[in-house]
Design a protein that fits this description.
The complex is a heterodimer of chains A (564) and B (370). Chain A has a two-stranded antiparallel sheet with strand order 2-3. Chain A has 23 helices and three strands. Chain A folds into two domains: 263 residues, MetI-like (MetI-like fold); 273 residues, MetI-like fold, CATH 1.10.3720. By secondary structure, chain A is mainly alpha-helical. By secondary structure, chain B is of the alpha+beta class. Chain B has eight helices and 21 strands. In chain B, the strands form four sheets. Chain B has a six-stranded mixed β-sheet, sandwiched between helices. Chain B is elongated. The chains are: A mainly alpha (564), B alpha+beta (370). At the A-B interface, strand 1, helix 19 and helix 20 of A face strand 4, strand 6, helix 2 and helix 4 of B.
Chain lengths: 564, 370
């Protein structure tokens, strides 16, 4: 019997295509994902402009976090802005989610759909709208002063940054918590009521502990997004500098890639610290598995409760959507003097931007399209390998794709600038570097949706195809890809949509020839040409919204589900 | 063997698990002839499906060989084996119509459109699917999906048809109807079929020969009647149909026959004897050195005739038969007796006498100690 034992012979050995594709994928991951990140770590330990050598290694770039007051401030400001935005976003989201799932509220689907808009619109477009509203000459500032004699704290600084970030990112907490509350078995809360607990006691002792993991997950996303955001602090920060703006000034002002790399690492360390705290905490919290239930929870319908809930929900939505509304209003304003509202409306702003900045619009479309296709091809194939492949390969792929996913855009920008500014591959100022940076930032998203989609495809279908005589390539083309196509196309549309407003990585990597739509808006804002910025911003928002709607129609899902 | 036969030789499959290697198929050998309906039967986890998947080429072979029609299949990729396979979950392509599902193997083989239409017309007609050709799998009932998956496996005229528990997802009545259809179709086409099931009644009803698996080993192979009447192990005796086991002591041997003493009545001369497998010795009571196996329908129950005094615990009317659950004095397990009609004057809770003819019984003698 033992004489007959041969080494295991896989049937896949005769298929070359998966092997070739695998090698290309790993190669691409090494060059465009692993190398830039590894390089940033090395650069951070080198003095500015020095070559890599053991004797040139130094801690100087990190020492500035102790020595330099501006570094120290930026570090604390990042924590204050990130933490403040997270707290505010959570404080707004929890009552809103509770109201939507436990109180009778009209237009629930509308509320959910509207709550997605802040996620779609680039935060920096919202940020300059806050200047129009709460700036020194802002609409609300004027109303409050003339009617009540009230003076608000300056919009420039921590107040504005925290408010703008919170209102931009709160839907992450809101949607996740709302989903958890909607899915929770109502019998659990009913059991508590039957045991004699008051409504408030049920919330405190049953409902809230049940959704703590969901709250933590949502809050973590807000924190990561907020400490990585460049646009909002760049526009509203003023003297209030945070780590991403510090990176920007180190690189744009001094072209000090090494200092930028060190700041980037500290910025990422904050993210990792937040992730670690959450991971440690969630180990304690995962006592409850929230099971889906057929029926929804009974909803409160007392008049007082309903009025309160409706008022709160629409208050938050109005606040969150106000910036986009102002941008839209301003985009049609041809003249806006000292009056509260514009005096002359028209399409002049649109005509002007379409004439002057047609090129950046096209650049954005081209760059985003190419990057999206790259994400699609790479994300799909790696996801396939991750789902169907061996455990080790899975882990390596997961890591190399998901790591850049949590990196702030500016960190990706630094990594690419440092990696491809000199050395074997020089890409600075080209379209390629922008495409690759976009690819790096978004491939994780496609990867995730592809993993979910492929997980839905029964491996037996592929085996049935093989038995029928199909090769791996034919099986992929005729069975697997058609089955996962809707999810992938929807994912691709979302990637494209969110790349339209990408600014954090772009701001470090663009060149005169490859200026993008987002950069054009940013320049208009800096040049105080707010009418043009508004027209361009509205165009960008509109395009994004249409694409997201198309994606949700394609998936047959609610828009709000796609961001959970 | 003839060029048409499937030869499995010393087949071994080991999986690496967290707790070390696990042998799923241990040194299995058998041959299946052309046009034969061959069934692998066994409890779940016995290695029957793994063996089938190795024949299909979906699972790598750890040791041994598989050949078909004289050609070594052991390392041939699944897609080059020209095998048809029907899956338990049907595995229909949800995005393709019934027509395209069935035509899939032909398109892969690059047949022309006219040829495909002609072949499809025949197969659709054969499986009564013509009306459903444009539907998607999601719009079909379980039985219809089953037919589509059979059509998809047959359309490219494979040399071998593999069926992995194809009836497990159907309700009882449809299961019986479909198994007859599968059998008739297989006869008509004259194709070799290898079938996997855990349902022994299904295996008996459908197969030319049955291979009984347990713990990755092939326990017995034979025609249904042979396996039922002449099991070579206690496992097979117990797994195929129902069996009553009575403790027995062998007094003397006379060639294959043995004089055997049971706890009741005179010693019996049993002509059918076998040696129990070493690992089955714990199924034999301590005080005895063998067990006598009698099928329920071969036992008699009467008010006065017989030699085993019993108490009737329960009586079940099952339509075609009446089943009695009885306890015999000095025996801790229940005996099952099946009679064609109710036994007169024997009610639940009463005492009666059970018996059987020596020719209907089979002795398993303890193997490890004489």
């Amino acid at each position: 019997m033992t004489a007959m034992i041969q080494p295991a012979v896989g049937t896949a050995r005769r298929e070359y295509l998966p092997f070739v594709v695998g090698v290309i994928m790993v190669g691409a991951a090494l060059i465009f994902l692993v190398y830039p990140i590894a390089n940033v770590i090395i650069q951070a330990f080198l003095a500015n402009g020095r070559d890599l050598a053991l004797t040139n290694l130094t801690f100087d770039n990190f020492e500035r976090f102790i020595v330099s007051a501006s570094y120290r401030r930026a570090f604390w400001h990042s924590i204050v802005a990130g933490g403040g935005a997270t707290l505010l976003a959570t404080a707004l989201s929890l009552p809103m989610a509770y109201a939507l799932t436990r109180v009778r509220i009209p237009f629930r689907p509308l509320v959910l759909a509207l709550s997605v808009i802040p996620l779609i619109a680039p935060p920096f477009i919202g940020a300059y709208a806050w200047i129009m509203l709460l700036g020194n000459n802002g609409m609300i500032t004027q109303i409050l002063y003339s009617s009540l004699g009230l003076r608000l704290p300056s919009i420039y600084g921590p107040f504005g940054v925290i408010v703008a970030l919170a209102l931009s990112y709160f839907p992450y907490v809101f949607l996740i918590v709302q989903g958890a509350l909607a899915a929770a078995d109502p019998a659990i809360e009913e059991a508590a009521q039957m045991a004699g607990a008051s409504r408030w006691r049920v919330i405190r002792t049953i409902t809230f502990p049940m959704i703590v993991p969901a709250i933590a997950a949502g809050a973590l996303i807000v924190f990561i997004k907020a400490i990585g955001d460049f646009g909002v602090p760049a526009i509203l920060g003023g003297e209030f500098q945070v780590l991403p703006t510090l990176i920007y000034y180190q690189i744009h002002g001094y072209f000090n890639l090494n200092a930028g790399s060190a700041i980037a690492i500290v910025n990422v360390a904050l993210t990792i610290a937040a992730l670690t705290i959450l991971a440690a905490a969630s180990r304690r919290w995962t006592f409850s598995t929230i099971t889906g239930s057929a029926r929804g929870a009974p909803r409160l319908s007392t008049p007082g409760m309903r009025i309160l809930a409706n008022a709160f929900v629409w208050f938050v939505l109005t606040l969150a959507l106000l910036p986009q509304a102002v941008v839209l209003l301003y985009s049609f304003a041809e003249r806006w003097g000292d009056s509260l509202l514009p005096s002359v409306y028209g399409l002049d702003n649109y005509r002007r931007v379409l004439r002057d900045v047609a090129e950046p619009i096209w650049n954005t479309v081209i760059l985003a399209t190419v990057a999206t296709f790259l994400c699609l091809a790479f994300g799909m194939i790696t996801a396939y390998a991750a789902v169907r492949g061996k455990a080790v390969a899975k882990w390596v792929l997961d890591l190399s794709i998901m790591v850049p996913f949590v990196l702030p855009g500016l960190v990706v920008g630094v990594a690419y600038l440092a990696a491809f500014n000199s050395g074997p591959i020089v890409l600075t100022g080209t379209a390629t570097i922008l495409v690759l940076a976009y690819f790096t930032r978004r491939v994780g998203f496609i990867f995730r949706s592809a993993v979910a989609a492929i997980g839905q495809v029964d491996p037996l279908l592929e085996q049935a195809s093989t038995i029928c005589g199909a090769s791996w390539g034919v099986t992929m083309r005729r069975i697997t890809v058609p089955l996962i196509a809707p999810a992938l196309i929807a994912g691709a549309v979302l990637v494209f949509a969110t790349l339209i407003g990408e600014i954090s990585a772009t701001v470090l990597l663009y060149s005169a020839q490859w200026k993008t739509l987002s950069i054009a808006i940013y320049e208009f804002v800096l040049g105080n040409e707010l009418a043009k910025a508004s027209a361009l911003g509205s165009l960008s928002n509109l395009l994004t919204l249409i694409l997201v709607l198309a994606a949700s129609a394609l998936l047959g899902r609610n828009m709000s589900d796609m961001f959970r | 063997m003839t060029a048409q036969s499937l030869v499995i030789h010393n087949l071994i499959k080991r999986f690496d698990t967290d707790t070390g290697p696990l042998t799923a198929v241990a040194d299995v050998s058998f041959e299946v002839g052309g046009g034969e309906f061959f069934t692998m039967l066994g409890p779940s986890g016995c290695g029957k499906t793994t063996t089938l998947r190795m024949i299909a080429g979906l699972e790598a072979v750890t040791g041994g060989s598989i050949s078909f029609g004289g050609r070594d299949y052991t390392v041939v990729p699944a897609r080059k084996r020209n095998i048809g396979m029907v899956f338990q979950s049907y595995a229909l392509f949800p995005h393709l119509s019934v027509f395209e599902n069935i035509a899939y193997g032909l398109r892969v083989r690059r047949l022309g459109d006219a040829d495909i239409r002609q072949r499809l017309a025949e197969v659709l007609d054969l499986l009564q699917l013509t009306e459903l050709a444009d539907r998607l799998p999601g719009q079909l009932s379980g039985g219809q999906q089953q037919r589509v998956s059979i059509a998809r496996a047959l359309v490219y005229q494979p040399g071998l048809l593999l069926l992995d528990e194809p009836l497990a997802n159907l309700d009882a009545k449809l299961r019986i109807q479909m198994r007859e259809e599968i059998r008739q179709l297989q006869r008509r086409l004259g194709i070799m079929a290898v079938y996997v099931t855990h349902d022994q009644e299904e295996a008996m009803a459908i197969s030319d020969r049955v291979a009984v698996f347990n713990h990755g080993r092939l326990m017995q192979i034979g025609e249904p009647l042979e396996i039922y009447e002449k099991p070579t192990s206690l496992f097979v005796a117990d797994f195929i149909g129902r069996a009553n086991f009575l403790p027995a002591t062998v007094i003397s041997r006379d060639g294959r026959a043995a004089m055997t003493r049971l706890p009741w009545g005179e010693p019996l001369r049993l002509a059918q004897t076998a040696v129990a497998l070493a690992e089955e010795s714990e199924m034999i009571p301590q005080q005895a050195n063998g067990v006598v196996m009698v099928r329920p329908e071969r036992m008699t129950l009467d008010k006065t005739r017989g030699f085993i005094p019993v108490q009737v615990r329960r009586r079940q009317f099952l339509g075609s038969i009446v089943r009695y659950m009885v306890t015999a004095t000095g025996l801790d397990t229940e005996l099952v007796i099946e009679a064609p009609r109710p036994v007169a004057h024997v009610e639940e809770g009463e005492v009666a006498i059970a018996g059987f003819m020596p020719d209907d019984a089979m002795l398993f003698q303890r193997g490890d100690r004489p």
